[in-house]
Amino acid sequence: MPNVQQCEQSKDDLPPEKRKDLNNLIREQVINALGRPTDLLKVQVRKVWDDHYRVNVLVGANAGSIRVANSYFVVTDSSGGLIAASPKIAKLY
What we know:
Structural class: alpha+beta
CATH topology: Nuclear Transport Factor 2, Chain: A
Radius of gyration: 14 Å
Strand content: 35-45%
CATH class: Alpha Beta
Number of helices: 2
Largest sheet: 4 strands, antiparallel
Number of domains: 1
Order of helices and strands: HHEEEE
Number of strands: 4
Shape: globular
Distance between the termini: 44 Å
Strand order of the largest sheet: 1-2-3-4
Helix content: 25-40%
Oligomer: single chain
């Protein structure tokens, strides 16, 4: 049985440039489905494990007012296409 540290680490076999491209693809699909929020600062994409990601949409007029406007747990296929999201991504903007 793996220990806690092993469970928390996700093995990433992709080279950094391919990881960046995949994250950009996921980011683009989430924003296309959601719409572009006013004061969008950043869309964080974090690999949780295999093809599962946490996507946080950060908004704010400046660095002092950043907040997470939307957060999703997404599942992708091997090429980065969105299969599912929890909660479901709805067009909000």
